[in-house]
Design a protein that fits this description.
An 8-stranded mixed sheet has the order 7-6-8-9-10-14-15-16, sandwiched between helices. Helix content is 40%, strand content 19%. The mean pLDDT is 95. It has 387 residues and is α/β, with parallel strands linked by helices. It has 13 helices and 16 strands.
Amino acid sequence: MANTDPVRVGVLFSRTGTTSRVELSQALGTSFAIREINEAGGIDGRELIAVPHDPECIPRNYRLLAERLVQEDRVNVIFGCYMSSTRKAVMPVVEKWQRLLMYPTPYEGFEFSHNIIYTGAAPNQNSAQLAEYMTRRFGARVYLVGSDYIYPYESNRIMSDFILERPGGAKLAERYVRLDANERDFLPIARDIKEKQPDFVFSTVVGKGTRMLYQACADAGLDPLKIPIASLTTCEAEVSEMGTSIAAGHITAAPYFQAVDTPVNRSCLARFRAIYGDEVEPNMCWEAAYFQVHLFARAMQKSGSDEIDRLLPHLLGSEFDAPQGRVRIDPDNHHTRLYPRIGRVGDDGSFSIVAESPVGVDADPYLVNHVTDEWRTRSVEVGAAGA
């Protein structure tokens, strides 16, 4: 007799706290994929059911709730985490109990876990491209600003290495703000940026601080056409919060923007908005949260189980036509083949894609084989981006 029991999966995205705006988009991307799977008949007739918890953006809560999902809720697969500090908190739980975490957020690389699938960008899929683009179009004198946790420190280290490889490359300053920073914390940074006049600002500020940094720079009179903020973490979610007048002219590197002009993306956005309206703005983290659920469901359909030892052989090497393009999980490093893109916010508040890779780029999380100038030879520039 066929098993018709529901398949329960954990969902660990915060609906309150510092980074809740983008995490809500990840939660809804996950819910959207689950809805699509269930409407298509589930996984061999078994309904997929989310077991969500709100960790409130506190790393300790992610660990405690991951333990609850494993021990009390009896789930084998968890979709979740935004900040690297929260992923680090969940990692020992899934490793101890032989569960699987699917992590849909760009991160700093230099990590591998048998119990994690990484569907966000690694440094060779966003940092390298951003460094090459910005130094070629604006110059190689950079001012670095980040939030005070793992990802910004490591991303700034990597970006510094890329920048210092370039002719005239210089790091003018490196500043950090606490995750619960307020408006006043960014004022001296904006004044210092104006005084030092870098070619661009590299931001790894996350959450509510993103709007504050961009607002402080605007209030200081910094012109984004001359000194843009370039980021790996500012996506449509943050732009919708800060508003067009502040965001216009600034630049982000990501595998996905709403502007990706493919039938798959246009159809996906239309279906999502028909259900959720304008509740969140789809973005790179939303897209990764969406497609990773479909990858899981297909793998489970083939394996007949969500237990990690049976699931992984079918998940590793699997592919899916995601909104950004056809993605693939690398069997060797558990990371995902993605499509690097550079976007710039226009006067209408939406990103325009100004450069992109026509082919997927495999993740090189330890930057073993990457050559910085590969991006220039492999990418296609779409427009002048106002520079």
